[in-house]
Write a structure and sequence with these properties.
The structure holds 2 protein chains of 2 kinds.
Chain A (H helix, E strand, L loop, with lengths): L8 H32 L3 H5 L13 H8 L1 H32 L7 H13 L4 H10 L7 H4 L5 H12 L3 H9 L4 H12 L1 H17 L2 H6 L8 H12 L3 H4 L4 H5 L4 H35 L2
Chain B lengths: L1 H48 L9 E5 L11 H9 L3 E5 L5 H11 L5 E5 L2 H10 L6 H7 L1 H6 L18 E5 L6 E6 H7 L7 H14 L8 E4 L19 E4 L2 E4 L6 H13 L12 H9 L3 E7 L3 H11 L5 E3 L12 E2 L3 E7 L7 H11 L2 H8 L7 E3 L5 E3 L3 H5 L11 H8 L7 H10 L6 E2 L10 H23 L7 H27 L1
Parallel strand pairs in B: 1-2, 1-3, 6-9, 11-15
Antiparallel strand pairs in B: 3-12, 4-12, 5-9, 5-10, 7-8, 13-14
Helix pairs in contact in B: 2-13, 9-17, 17-18
Classes of the chains: A mainly alpha, B alpha/beta.
Amino acid sequence: MAAKIKSTWHDQLFIALNSLFMLFLVAITLLPFLHVIAKAFSGDTAIMAGKVLFWPLKPQINALRFVVSSNSFSKAFGFSIYLVFAGTAISMLLTLITSYPLSKTRIKGRKFLLLYFVFTMLFSGGLVPSYLLRYELGLIDTYWAVILPGLAVFNMLIFKNFFEQIPDSLEESASIDGAGNLTIMMRIYLPLSMPAVATLTLFYAVGYWNNYFGPMIYLTNSAKYPLQLYLRSVIHLASLSDVEKSTTDIDLLMNVATESVVASTVIASTLPILILYPFLQKYFVKGMIIGSVKG
Amino acid sequence: MKIEMKKALSLIMILTLIVVSAACSNTSTTTTTTSGSSTTATTKKTETSTTQKEELPELKILTAYSAIDMNTYPNYQDVVDLTGYTVKYDNLPAEDAISKVNMVLATGGGYDIIYVPAPSSNYFKYAKEGAIQDLTDLIDTYGQNYITAMDGYKFIDPLRIDGKVFCLPQPNPGAYLASGNFIRKDWLDSIGMAIPQTTDDVLDVLRAFKAENPGNVDPCIPYVQGNNLFPEMFAGAFGVATEYVIEDGQLISRYRSESMKDYLSYMNTLFTEKLLDNEFPINTSEVTNNKIFSGKAGLFSYSVWGISGMVNAFKENLPDAEYVLIGYPKGPDGQQGVAVAQGYYGFNVVPKSSPNAEHVVKYANALYQEDNFVKIYDGHENVHWEYDDNGNMTPIQPAFGDERSIASYILGIGETWQLKYWTIRLQKDANLYEWFYKMQDYADMRVFNVPDLAPGFDSVLSSKDELTELATENITKFISGSLSIADYQSFLDAYMAAGGEQAEKDLAEWYVQNK
């Protein structure tokens, strides 16, 4: 309808200026990426002189080649992929089987259970108790220590809200046809919730991909580091101040990565998760809105 | 539509199953590999233990960050073979290692050795809390090689609490200079001036740089430095290079030194005349690099660790630039010097829960048996290194670089062994080797902060953060001129009242008793 209303010249001017302004904002958010990309493909001497801004100077691809072919990078990459797949699968499963029952009003003690979950969202035991727990369970230095809490209460609530707006009559008719709870959840509710599934999958996948803190605390063998932690270590060592250098092992200082290598590592570790977005985007927006509007 | 849904559903189910089962099987593979390697290790141990009477335990070590898996790197086998102990290494993260140490010490973590990173307040805290074991008698009884490698008790004594030592320290002996002051020789030549020798000469040169802009750059920044309030270029010339200084045989805080005001007004002159980079309080190393290698800087300091990058960056960006080391200028009272950090990289402690304290010291002692040490640290003669015609150790590449890149297997060394066995590592890089030795021409100008080797007084440890913050804020203002040096006394009063007085008193008493 709106398209049929004849727009005046100042409407058009507004739209034009608005678009320009938005494009400008888009450009601003893109510039830091461009800068890092330019650095990844520039010679180190040009970077040190501060000449590289958005276009590579003294172009080279050795830095990227070095990063991608280095053993520690590819290992860390593999571990990250593994964490993302294993973590997301387990988290999705746990989220599903927690949120579905909690979306049913007929469950006794539902309010208490919900409060129980929300409480953990607001208050946590703290880092040392979490570490102690994992230690006593023998999970330190395994990926389980990073994956196992599994469930993010916030995501569980989104999923629960999504289930709640699916009409109860669907469940009734299915049970008349002889379907049990599990069948109803898996074959009726889940297929209807694909937008929510896609959204939460992306949430979890990005969360696991970017998680460096958990691995930093719970993994003790640096050969097991996933990509983000490996990246942080590389960058941290490359940006030590002179004071910090005076108390850092000299052999580490001799092997500090140059700026183009640091930039290449950043690029190589950001690209994979960026690639995931376009494929999930259409579900993503829908899922976010539907899940969040209904309370 | 229905089929598609079914497909999607079963796909998800299958994926979950696969991943979960993969997760399980993967963990079990990890366990088998570890147990596999420990079986080989145990076999090894039984072999060696035929010559030894007692069964040696496996030592679990949590050490500093290493990018390489220390359990599979070529040094590892030497450590096991030469010490007779099977060891299992884990590493702390590169960043914020102390948080992890806190956590691990809360459980003991099953470790026998845990590396506690500097500063020493970390070590003193754990020792006073009773989280780590007393090693005094063990070191005296079983640690003779270790003590030799540490230059005796020099680095051990400062760590005593009521006479007891709770760690095997990893000292930073401050045996060499790791940076130098550089001047653009081509700039000097074009304005016809000589290499400056005193702080007054430097001032003249910097003013001439500013006035004549010999590099023809915009803007010309005569002197570029990082965010250091007491840069090595000038602080030593005024005798305020270290936090505590000795004046008339007494140890006092540098903020109470007579020459502090002279230093501040000199720096203030540099700042107000824009001879000193006015952005210096916020300069990162990246930013100083940009200023130096875009040719805007005439005078600057550079760390030896980045020296190869510096040489190449000059060669490619400013091929006509000439740069020379100028040493450290003399101050108005003829003082000269450069502060070098001395103290500790970290501390190897034995947590309370470990039953193996005695074995830890015996293991360290075996590690520091001189032949063993050379093999583990620098490699085997004629494989990793050889003697050159002058009798100096030189690396054999690529074996040395490939198989002896990390030294974290060693628990730290004192000055003597550092100069004897560490310097070979510099030869991995020709520029580094060359400039390192050029910088050492000024090594006799090193000055140390005497209290760095003092025991951990509560008054010093508890006031340190607040005092540092107070000093940083005020000294920056004095240099930039937003506080007048005439008001210096009120800063000093505040500083002494915030704990500076008690800290100075305790340290001064300790100094009188121990000098």
